[in-house]
Amino acid sequence: MRARNDPGFIEFLMKIGNGEERVNCQGQIRIPQPMLIPYTSIEQSIESLISSVYPDMSLFEKCPFEMVQQAILCPKNEFVDDFNSKLIQRIQGNEVVYISDDRAKNVMDQGDYVDYLNSLEPRGLPQNRLVLKVNCPVILLRNINPVEGLSNGTRLIFKRISPLILRQISLRLCFVMTINKLQGQMLDYVGMYLRQPVFTHGQLYVALSRAKTGENVNILIVPPTFNDPGTEYTRNVVYTEVLAKESLK
User: Fold this and answer.
1) Cβ distance 198 to 236 under 8 Å?
2) Can you give the residue ranges of every domain in the chain?
3) Where is the DNA helicase Pif1-like 2B domain positioned along the sequence (predicted)?
4) Which residues face 98 on adjacent strands?
């Protein structure tokens, strides 16, 4: 539990986590109005969400370690990369592009499979093309030195561009992240992009509970169809039988 000074938010979180929040006829919960980004169009609403979490991108140059304490969260990876590609362009400075060196096990097949290898994005591995700028936020994708705090999921600030080869450092931009990647961490400001609803047990609770207060949570719910007015409701996946078993231990 993160939100100690916001009793109303704590109560809402507990109901979300226990699956006790009231649902509508479609099994969806209603998100409190103060947390919602109004949906107008997909482009305008996304810009509103970005501005609510990152109102001044120039602060990454002035106080990057404070800026890394805020992020936009998504249930799935498919929207994360598009957001990060857009936001890296809003940071001042020159960019450096790192390209992975993917090789087929059989050298004779290298020419046939290199494009295919470059297109693969296995879970836990960096992308084929990584664009970085000084002071941009990154996240480690594997354990480097847990004793020094460099573990899978550690958020860092990229501080220097070097002409040397970047050797086996599994990094990814983290303006926007998946909900699961942020478990166990906390943020000053939390944005949520729900183009699709959460899909696993406790995922909505995990996302919301990263924030210290409900005032610092901003959620954009994209309606499934153009005429669907339900931008206040979303799914909350809770397996109550799992909670019951935990309480018996």
Assistant:
1) yes
2) 7-248
3) 115-157
4) 130
**Residue 142: exposed, middle, or buried by beta-carbon count in 10 A (0-12, 13-18, 19+)?**
middle
pLDDT of residue 144: 86
* Per-residue pLDDT reduced to its tens digit, 126-138: 677 889 999 999 9
Q: Which residue has the tokens 């799992």?
A: 242
Residue type, 176: V
pLDDT of residue 100: 72
